[in-house]
Amino acid sequence: MNLKDISLEIRGPVAVVRLCRPAKRNALSDGLIAEVRGVFENLPETVRAAVLDGEGDHFCAGLDLSELKDRNAGEGLHHSRMWHSALEQVQYGPVPVIAALHGAVVGGGLELASACHIRVADESAFFALPEGSRGIFVGGGGAVRIPRLIGVSRMTDMMLTGRVYNAQDGERVGFAEYLVPKGQASEKAFELALRVAENAPLTNYALMHALPRIAEQPADQGFLTEALMAAIAQSAPEAKDRVRAFLEGRAAKVAKV
After folding, report:
1. Domains of the chain, CATH where assigned
2. Which of 150, 15, 138 lies closest to 79 in space, CA to CA?
3. Dist. CA 96–CA 15, nearest whole Å
4. Average pLDDT over residues 13-25
5. Rounded Cα distance, 171 and 177, in Å
6. Which of 185, 195, 217, 252 is the most buried (most CB within 10 A)?
7. How far apart are CA 213 and CA 162, in angstroms?
8. Residue 143 has pLDDT above 90, yes or no
C-alpha cells in the first residue's frame, strides 16, 4: 500500500497503525480516512491484533476543517457514508483493535476511537465533541457508537455545551477502559494487543462481530445468536486443544491479580 498519512509496522502478530499528520494534530482528511480503510482491509493474514495510535502530542483532533466544503445534502450524505464504510473496517474488520489515546481525542478522532474495541488513555488525553458549536453534526458514526460508551444524555450535553472531559473523568464515564501515566498509552496498548493475539481467532471474531449485535437484539434472538456462535467457536480445532490443555493441567488457571 502507498501510504502518505499513516505508518504501518508489523511487530510479530500485532499491526501498529499510526496516524501521521502531527502538524495538523492528526486531523482527519478524506485521504487519511481512505488510508484507514485500506490498511484495515488489507492487513497481512499473520496479524492477530492491531494498535491504533497517533504521532506527536495528540491522537486525533477531529475533522480537518480546511477540507470542509460547501456540500449539498446529497453530497454530505455520501461523504458521511464514506466515513462509515472506513470506520466499519476498524470495528468489523479482521482483528481486534486497541486504541492508544493521548492529547486531543476530539470530534472525528473520538468517532475513530469509538470504533476500536479497547481504548487505553494516558493522563494527557481529553475528549470533546465541538461539532455543536461549529454548526455541524457528527458524521463518522459517532451518533451510534459514542452513546453506547457513555449514554445519550452525556453525548447530548457534550454537543450542546461544549463540555470537555479530562482523562480521569473520561475513563470514569466510559471513553476508555484503561488509564495510564502520560506517555504510556502506546506501550500498554501493545501489551494488550499481544495478549489479545494469543486468543483463538474464532473467539476474537465472536467478540468483535457477534457480541455487539447480540447486545442490540431482543433477548430471545440474542440467546439463539449466542448459542450458534458458541457452537461454532468450540468446534474449532484450536478451541478443542485449549480445553484439553486445561483439563490436563497444562494451562494456567485464572488467578487473582
Report:
1. 6-197 (3.90.226.10), 201-247 (1.10.12.10)
2. 138
3. 10
4. 97
5. 6
6. 185
7. 31
8. yes
The pLDDT value recorded for residue 251 is 67
Reported as a pLDDT band with limits 50, 70 and 90, residue 243 is low
Q: What is the pLDDT of residue 202?
A: 93
Side-chain half-sphere CA neighbours of 13 within 13 A? 16
- Known catalytic residue at 226: no
Residue 9 cell numbers, joined:
509496522
pLDDT at 57 over 80: yes
Spot the catalytic one: 35, 67, 75, 131. Answer: 131
| Interior/surface letters 51-72, b for 16+ CB within 10 angstroms, e for the rest | bbbbbbebbbbbbbeeeeeeee
Catalytic option among 9, 35, 67, 111: 111
Q: Which of 47, 109, 111, 98 is nearest to 208 (CA)?
A: 98
Question: What's the confidence (pLDDT) of residue 245?
Answer: 67
Provide the whole-model pTM.
Answer: 0.93
CA angle at residue 107 from 55 to 126, to 5 degrees?
65
Examine the residue annotation and report whether 198 is marked as an active-site residue of this protein. Answer: no
